[in-house]
Specification:
CATH class of the largest domain in chain A: Alpha Beta
Radius of gyration of chain A: 19 Å
Largest interface: A-B, 24 and 23 residues
Strand order of the largest sheet of chain A: 7-6-5-8-9
Shape of chain A: globular
Structural class of chain A: alpha/beta
Number of domains of chain A: 2
Oligomer: homotrimer
CATH topology of the largest domain in chain A: Rossmann fold
Largest sheet of chain A: 5 strands, parallel
CATH architecture of the largest domain in chain A: 3-Layer(aba) Sandwich
Order of helices and strands of chain A: HEHEHEHEHEHEEHEHHHEHH
């Protein structure tokens, strides 16, 4: 996939994954650039609902002057038996140049990129459990704003349901690419992957022990279906073991940054005090999301 | 709330309610002003569906050159347990400056305005049973166009389900602020409020008696659930007692203006003859709605 | 209806049907013309869902610089009992100038055009079983690109569920207007109309026999509900008798063009080899759809 998203001169053609993406891949600079995409059509093509991510891309594309088309593939002709590939090829024939694609299956966006025509660019807005590259980019930008440009001295802990999280896998790729000093991963055994996803990480299930001296905490969202699946006994117990409150945060490194991809389950992953406190970078992540998506769209389509 | 929506110099900061809003609050002048909001993002944030009101605001914001984002909060991450407040703060972090908010609960929009950041403006597009300020403004503009600028000589009757109507409460505030000569309120006892909403109004349940000499009739929509709740025996009986037909309209003042917030239940609140007749101002209300919303958005964001 | 869509000087005022539309009706020329509709509001008003057709019109209107409003009439106040006519008049009062209307009932769009005000234009985006004029126009444009401007020498076969197809009826009107040499119609008896729709056509149910020497094949989509209605025994049997595969295509005229209005049921109406093969004009139809809709919108509103 890495090869597929870069052209022969190393220029980004699609953005499918951060896995293997070179550290120095050129990406456009952030700014309020009306008309960069004036007259270009960008389609948000979502095979799985996500109002928030869609809105972030929608605003980013509008701010670059693009015509934006929302195509909700879960309520459209895909229901009439059309394949995802035909949906893409049709919208491409209608003149859409950029596609922002969310899909429940791993690799689905890369498969669509493989059939896309010359001049068409795809951005993976999250597929399966593996990839959500713009989330990774915005998380790294936020870490840099919070902790400075030297990632090699940084200690980061990722907390929660790593097993089912494309955010975690994406951040792991990005943190390794940036040469982060130490990556810790913490969560209940039932929510940690048993493959080589965590290679090189310090792994454990005792949150209090894993907190000491970290510069940043990347809290993952706990999907409620994990309860129904029996992977987590209860929200209360999860919060007691893995919830971030002010007492725990005090044990982390000085001014440790708290990140969360949203939407937050308040009182589960983090308490209100932490979510709204001075060490929370959550809304900065959201703001960075639009900036990063503008930069990606400009790089691919500008 | 009045204090909250005005800044120290009396300038409108949010529009939350007409209750207590000074008569001479400055509001932008109507016009076709492309680029007034060029590059600004406006979000329609609806926690309760209303395609018509949303469309009116959407067209108003587009006509001012804004980027418009529709955020349907009933099918989004709010379902994933996110609070309305977090939804607002997230969209604000994405760069949205103006929010048009509809919510089923009284005071919900004011509560959101209380947490909004500097530079963010909210317009209440209807919340609970209490407030729908742009409807009140467009109704007053329509009354003025129909009957001239001297409200002190005007007799107005409000007819129907006042108890559950934010339109009625809003119009009552506006009519009082403008010093309307006489306000009559008419409907079945089961649909009239028993608190001090109707203070100073002439109240009665005999429509024919209440019609005499009025300059304007503000007909309220009858929600079908009032039947299921047993508050109204049947549509037929409601129409017989409170439906406006040409015979009844002839009994009102000369050229009395007929208003209805829409959508009309034809044959229930008004007959086809009246709805489409020369004394109907219903479509003028709709046109005024876009003009008023443009003026409000320009005042708050321009 | 023909009279209704032309004004006294023969200029197109609405586009409701191709039936009886003169061959030389002037329509704007295709091009990338930003600002032609700058500041005009166009509403896609769909009383029946069709994401694909709606998207095509949406992109066409955006490319002309229009403000586009999607009004999904199946989930809006029409559900609250509002008539289609009131919905139209309301949106018109809000300043919408162009309406793209899809409706399940025959003649519904013409009925709406009859009540529309001066200066408002309607485009029929498909109603009932009778009319889908922009589909007809894009099909004719595609035929011309594929087979040249002399329609009089062309042999065309329409295949499938003609009985329930507005595409077929529309194409029949257009093919006759253009003086196509021979029109063949092929499908199971249960899916062929028994009125005078097929007057002048060569009709038969043996696909292999009807293929010989045709210049173009217009394959119709098979709705799955035809199975439930007992009109077709099974998809497999339909495909065996009326599915277009490479073997059959070889029996048609040299370089015969394959058209399909989409979305394709792959393996039912056509095989993958044919759909993606060199004789498929399906994606060109889609591209032509946007161009034709731009031309129509410019003609009606520019």
């Amino acid at each position: 996939m890495t090869a597929q998203q870069l052209d022969d001169s190393g220029r980004l053609r699609h953005l499918l994954t951060l896995e293997g993406l070179p550290r120095d891949t050129p990406v456009g600079r952030v700014g309020n650039k009306r008309h960069v995409l004036g007259g270009s059509a960008v389609c948000t093509l979502f095979f799985e609902p996500s109002t928030r991510t869609r809105s972030s891309f929608h605003l980013a594309a509008q701010r670059l002057g693009a015509d934006v088309l929302n195509f909700d593939a879960s309520t459209s002709s895909t229901r009439k038996g059309e394949t995802a590939c035909d949906t893409l090829k049709n919208l491409e024939a209608m003149g859409v140049r950029g596609f922002v694609v969310r899909h429940p299956d791993d690799g689905a966006v890369a498969a669509l990129a493989a059939v896309a025509g010359e001049g068409t660019a795809l951005v993976n807005a999250g597929d399966g459990r593996s990839s959500h590259p713009t989330q990774g980019l915005l998380d790294m930008l936020t870490l840099r704003q919070a902790k400075g440009p030297d990632f090699s001295k940084m200690k980061v802990v990722i907390v929660g349901d790593v097993k089912h999280s494309r955010v975690a896998r994406t951040d792991l790729h990005a943190l390794r690419t940036l040469g982060v000093g130490e990556i810790r991963v913490c969560g209940p055994q039932s929510l940690l992957p048993d493959d080589d996803t965590l290679k090189g990480c310090v792994v454990g299930d005792d949150f209090d022990a894993m907190l000491e001296g970290v510069d940043a905490l990347m809290m993952l969202r706990l999907q409620r279906e994990r309860m129904e699946e029996g992977l987590v006994p209860s929200l209360e117990q999860y919060h007691a073991q893995y919830g971030l409150n002010t007492a725990r945060l005090a044990r982390a490194g000085k001014d440790a940054a708290v990140l969360h991809p949203g939407p937050i389950n308040r009182g589960v992953e983090v308490t209100d005090e932490v979510a709204d406190g001075p060490q929370s970078w959550v809304l900065r992540q959201v703001a960075n999301g639009v900036a990063v998506r503008m930069a990606v769209l400009e790089t691919l389509l500008g």
